[in-house]
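ok trying this again, last paste got cut off
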Amino acid sequence: MGKIFNIFLVIMLVGCKTTSVVDDRGYKGKTAQVFGYNSVDHAYNELKKLPTVKSSERNGWKELHNSADHSFWAFTPDDHEAHPSIIKRSVVLKGGEFGIQTQISCAAEKSICDKLLQNFKNLNNVNFENE
C-alpha cells in the first residue's frame, strides 16, 4: 500500500503481580478475569471453539485469528518469562484512520510485561512501515 498508518495503541495491562494501583501505563493490578474469561487457558479454549476462529502455532506461541471481529490473539509459550499471558490485537478505526489496538493481560512482574508490550508495539510499527 505504500502508506504508513498512524497506530493507535490502547494499552490495558491487567493482572500484573507487582502493583495494585492504576499507573500511567494502565496497570490495574491482579484480577480474576482475563478479557472476561476465568483464566488464560479458559480464554484460549473458549475462543478456539468459535466457528470464526482459526488457530495456529508458531515458535511455541498459540495464535488465534477471529474473522468476525478481525482480532488476533497470541498466547505465550509455557517457557516464556511472561507466561501465562495474552496479547490481543484488533484493527480499529479512530478519527478516520485505521490503527491497531493492543491489549495485554500479563501474569509476570511489571518490567517483564513492559518488555512484552514493547515487543508487540515494535511489531505494529514494522508491519505498517513495510506496507
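PB: full thing came through this time. The chain has a mean pLDDT of 76.
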